[in-house]
Every structure is written in C-alpha cells, then in structure tokens.
Design brief:
Length: 103
C-alpha cells in the first residue's frame, strides 16, 4: 500500500448524512464525502472503503497500489454515531463537519 501525500479537505454535508447507508463501508456518509472530494481533486479511483479507524482508496486498474490513510478522531466518532442509528434512526442530531486527510 502507498503512503499518503496530498492533503485534501473532506466535507461531510447534510446530504451525505441523509443519503449515506449505515454499516456500509462503501456508501456511508464519510465514503460519499470522500468520493466527492477525490473527484474534485481529479484523483481517479475504483472504490472507497471506510472503516472505523481508516479509509482505503482502491485505484482504477491498471493503476498502482491502494491508498490507505487514518481517519481523525472526529471522523471515527462520527462513524460510531452514524452506524448506531441504523438506517431508520433520527439523523437530525448528526451535524455536518469537515476534516483533512493526506492521499
């Protein structure tokens, strides 16, 4: 896996919170925000996988290694709150936020 280099800002919006799928590492609110930010930065990827402590960006083939980077504490906490609600929980208490990562 590659180490990370370019700093990008990830903004988790109200739409990400509404449209994200709980307990789905490919389509959770943070994954949606990360995909949007990668596209904005013209970083090509096949998929994004978000876990409680890190995210992995799978490159388009025949590109190189996966990009792996840790998530900041705010993002890790959000994942637990988001997933605990389940798909039918009240997401109105979850607030948009942003964080930076190096990819």
């Amino acid at each position: 896996m590659k180490t990370t280099k370019t700093k990008i800002k990830i903004e988790v919006t109200p739409r990400d919170i509404k449209k994200g799928e709980c307990n789905d590492p490919y389509n959770c609110a943070i994954a949606l925000a990360l995909k949007r930010s990668l596209r904005k930065e013209h970083i090509s990827f096949r998929n994004v996988f978000v876990e409680s402590g890190h995210a992995t960006v799978h490159p388009r083939r025949p590109a190189g290694d996966n990009l792996w980077f840790p998530l900041p504490k705010r993002a890790r906490n959000f994942i637990f709150e988001f997933d605990d609600l389940g798909d039918f929980g009240d997401r109105s208490e979850l607030k948009p936020f942003s964080f930076e990562v190096r990819v």
